[in-house]
Amino acid sequence: MEPGTILLICALVLVVLSFIIWVCSRYKKCPSDKIMVVYGSIGKNKDGTNRSAKCIHGGAEFVIPVFQSYAFLDLTPISIQVDLTNALSRQNIRIDVPSRFTVGISTEPGIMQNAAERLLGLRNTEIQELSKDIIFGQLRLIIATMDIEEINTDRDKFLAAVSNNVETELKKIGLRLINVNVTDISDESGYIAALGKEAAAKAINDAKKSVAEQERDGSIGEANAQMEQRIKVSEANSIAIQGENEAKMKIAMSEAALKEKQAEALKIATTAEKIQAAKALQESYAAEQAAEEARRSKEQATLEADLIVKAEAKKREMELAAEAEAEQIRRKAKGEADAIYAKMEAEARGMEEILKKQAAGFAEIVQSAGGDAEAALKLLIADKLEELMRVQVDAIKNIKIDKVTVWDNGQNGDGKNATAGFISGMMKAVPPLEEVFGMAGMQLPEILGKKLPEAPDTTAAE
Questions:
Q1: CB under 8 Å to 410, separation ≥6 — which residues?
Q2: How many CB atoms lie within 10 A of CB 451?
Q3: Residue closest to 143 by CA, chosen among 98, 88, 193
Q4: Residue closest to 104 by CA, chosen among 82, 135, 73
Q5: Among 44, 83, 420, 435, which is disulfide-ready with 416 (CB 3.0 to 4.6 Å)?
Q6: CA–CA separation, 392 vs 181, rounded Å?
Q7: Is residue 201 within 8 Å of 132, Cβ to Cβ?
Q8: Angle CA(63)–CA(64)–CA(66) in degrees, nearest 5?
Q9: Which residues of 1-28 are buried (b: 16+ CB within 10 A; e: fewer)?
Q10: Rounded to whole angstroms, how far apart are CA atoms 374 and 380?
Q11: Is 64 left (phi over 0), alpha (psi -120 to 50) or beta?
């Protein structure tokens, strides 16, 4: 899609959204404390005339752009102080009637229409002044049709007449009367004050007359009451004395019977108390014995449980220690065995290498000797001859002889003296090479000498 087409589509979407938002903004909601008046092209009435306005209270209305507009009427009550002075009554007496009226725009359908036509756009002060003029006129009219006595004494009638007349006139401009409060009524001639004084004097005289009559009746009644009191008191005294005597006799008899019954009750109570005390003491002893037995059983069970638990714990501890020690010994033995095995295996490998090297060296010696094993052996012995002689000498070299005593008688038959024989014997104590080779299953090479034939035993022959 080309960029120009995309821009055109975006512009169309933006225009449509703007139009929808603008249309939605024309949907107006009416608050509960106001009346929304829609005016403009509203429609026609039933008689065909153009409708001036449409009033809405507690709802919403779509206001058509360009063709319609709207405004609000405030339903807040308006308090108006009306101080009416020099109002002429039906008796031609001028009076002052200070009062306070509370009015507000009506929410009745027809009256709302009047308010929309006559009060839309006016401020509260302007509505207050307009209402005040209407109220002044109606108050003067009502006072002119009533006597001062009616206005002053029958206040409900006066307020009902004011409410009816004033509210009828207020409805014509879309208002309704909420409350009327007349504070006080006075006149310049003092007629109302005189009426008040007359009423007060009459009330005072009536009160005084009533008090005198009541005092008279009270005195007569008091005298009659005193006479009747004395008669009744005397009769009552005689009857009372007789009654007192009878009562005293009854009291004496009753006290005697009471003391008798009290003694019996005390005896029964004492016996029962002692029996109950003995039973309670017996039950207490039994309960203490049972409690002591239970305590002993509990302590024994606790002690046994502690011993068993400690023994079990000790046993388990010893088992774990033995298992740990056995495991340690097994691991140590396994480690020592592995070490010994590794050492012996290493020694075996070393010995095997030594023997292999010796065999290889001996094979080279035999090969050097022209394949003659005996000649090769002679070469080896010749090489080790000095070491063999050193071994023979070392055998007696380290013998410590502090002192040698020789009793020498001269030479022996073989031409040797005793000292020479001693030394020669020590040398002979070392095994000859021929015997060593013989014990090894070998024969001493001729290069090292031959064994001389043994001399015949002449002593046996002799």
A1: 417
A2: 10
A3: 88
A4: 73
A5: 420
A6: 158
A7: no
A8: 120
A9: eeeeeeeeeeeeeeeeeeeeeeeeeeee
A10: 10
A11: beta
| Length of the chain, in residues | 462
- Name the residue with tokens 């207020």: 170
CA separation for the pair 112, 55 (Å, rounded):
7
Burial 97-117 (b: 16+ CB within 10 A, else e): bebebebbbbeeeebbbbbbe
Q: How far apart are CA 211 and CA 208, in angstroms?
A: 5
> pTM higher than 0.90 for the full model?
no
Instruction: For residue 267, give the amino acid letter.
Output: K
Provide the token pair at 341.
Answer: 């095995």
| Residue 461: per-residue pLDDT | 40
Mean pLDDT over each residue of the chain, to the nearest integer: 78
Q: Say what the pLDDT of residue 337 is.
A: 85
Lowest mean pLDDT among 235-249, 371-385, 403-417: 403-417
Tell me the backbone φ, ψ of residue 53, rounded to 5 degrees. Answer: -160, 160
Q: What is the arithmetic mean of pLDDT over 96-123?
A: 88
C-alpha closest to that of 450 among 423, 432, 427, 429: 432
183's CB contacts (< 8 A; 6+ apart) are 98, 99, 100
Question: Which domains does the chain possess?
Answer: 3-72 (no CATH), 76-189 (3.30.479.30), 364-391+421-450 (no CATH)
